[in-house]
Amino acid sequence: MKHGARNDIPATVVAIKRGGVMAQVEAEIEGTRFRITSVMTLDSLNQLGIAEGDVVRVVAKAVNVLLVKP
Fold this sequence. Notes:
Elements: E1 7-18, E2 22-29, E3 35-41, H1 42-48, E4 55-61, E5 64-68
Antiparallel strand pairs: 1-2, 1-4, 2-3, 4-5
């Protein structure tokens, strides 16, 4: 996926909390113990196929944090 954000950080999904409509996805930044959390709809989570243990790219732009599978 192409994007214009400069903050593109490799991470691994360590936890997913599912609600009725939304999901909270926690990812640990590669080579550190720092974690970042992204919130998305369950539809988006399912369409992206994100699961615990997946390697993702954390794309931070303004107040939004996007997860992108390489």
